[in-house]
């Protein structure tokens, strides 16, 4: 079964890397070798990704929003409880209109880290704001 997921990555990383089976691995935030998972991490929706990025404080120097599609890898994601999936992408494309997305992520970061708003609430806020995507 093929699944569409969304991820953020640095624009300098080639989309071809995501399609290369030799590079379809995910690493935990601490880059611990025992936490290496088979598959490219992503979230099922844009609003879940926004909340995830805010809570996990994931950064990229030149971020882009990427839509990937492919079968699930069968491995267990590190952040499965937050809705993370691991796919083996067969297609990948940059989502062109992402300025609103990254502005929202910035606001969600402030809400989470400044006011203690939890993931589920951030996801709901993002869902309302990004309903048009």
Question: What can be said about this structure in brief?
Answer:
The chain is α+β, with helices and mostly antiparallel strands.
The percentage of residues in β strands lies in 25-35%
Rounded to the nearest angstrom, the distance between the terminal CA atoms is: 23 Å
Strand order within the widest beta sheet: 1-5-7
Helix content: 25-40%
> Residue-averaged pLDDT, rounded?
90
Largest sheet: 3 strands, antiparallel
Query: Radius of gyration from the CA trace?
Result: 14 Å
- Overall, the morphology is globular
Give the strand tally. 7
SSE order, as H and E? EHEEEHEEEHH
Oligomerization state of this entry?
single chain
Explain the overall architecture.
With 133 residues, this protein is of the alpha+beta class. Helix content is 33%, strand content 26%. The strands form three sheets. The protein has a three-stranded antiparallel β-sheet. The protein has a two-stranded antiparallel sheet with strand order 2-3.
Main features:
133 residues, 3-stranded antiparallel sheet, two-stranded antiparallel sheet, 4 helices, 7 strands
């Amino acid at each position: 079964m093929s699944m569409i997921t969304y991820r953020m990555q640095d624009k300098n990383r080639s989309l071809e890397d995501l399609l290369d089976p030799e590079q379809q691995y995910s690493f935990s935030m601490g880059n611990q070798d025992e936490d290496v998972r088979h598959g490219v991490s992503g979230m099922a929706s844009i609003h879940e990704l926004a909340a995830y990025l805010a809570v996990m404080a994931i950064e990229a120097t030149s971020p882009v929003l990427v839509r990937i599609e492919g079968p699930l890898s069968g491995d267990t994601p590190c952040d499965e409880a937050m809705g993370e999936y691991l796919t083996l992408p067969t297609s990948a494309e940059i989502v062109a209109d992402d300025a609103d997305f990254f502005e929202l992520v910035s606001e969600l970061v402030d809400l989470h880290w400044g006011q203690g708003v939890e993931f589920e609430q951030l996801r709901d806020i993002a869902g309302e704001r990004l309903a048009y995507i």
